[in-house]
Design a protein that fits this description.
About 45% of the residues lie in helices and about 0% in strands. The chain is mostly helical. It has one domain: Cytochrome Bc1 Complex, Chain D, domain 2 (Orthogonal Bundle), CATH 1.10.760.10.
Length: about 140
């Protein structure tokens, strides 16, 4: 009985003090997206950069995501969601079809989209076709 008299008040005190934690105030603040963009860059490098370039400007196996072709009104975010899930039949470029990327998670995909859209906003878009592919 003596232990109960000590443990019960201590338990109540711990619960009450835990509810008053002072470091939780930042969890109510809206995110500026920088964490998601940083996570997106990491996921992009892991899943996309080999073909689309670390700088998003493409490689000899995949196009630049900074091309005007990838602006949101032409390739909306749903196109970026679909491509790694089902692949893409080549239609703007001569790189061949894009195979699905099965190991990218939905969370990674959303952060990749945030990273790509942020880079597009900061860098702007390149002309299509790029000068090296323009026949004129």
């Amino acid at each position: 009985m003596r232990v109960t008299r000590i443990v019960a008040p201590l338990t109540v005190a711990v619960v009450l003090l835990g509810a008053c934690g002072g470091d939780d105030e930042t969890t109510d603040q809206p995110s500026d997206g920088t964490d998601e963009i940083a996570e997106g860059e990491t996921a992009y490098v892991a899943h996309c950069a080999e073909c689309h370039g670390v700088d998003l400007r493409g490689t000899d196996t995949g196009p630049s995501f900074l091309s005007i072709v990838y602006e949101p009104s032409h390739h909306p975010d749903d196109a970026f969601r679909s491509a790694p899930r089902v692949g893409v039949v080549a239609h703007h470029w001569d790189f061949g079809d894009m195979a699905p990327v099965p190991d990218v998670t939905d969370e990674e995909l959303e952060s990749i989209i945030a990273f790509v859209r942020d880079a597009q906003e900061r860098e702007g878009f390149e002309d299509y076709p790029p000068p090296e592919l323009d026949p004129s």
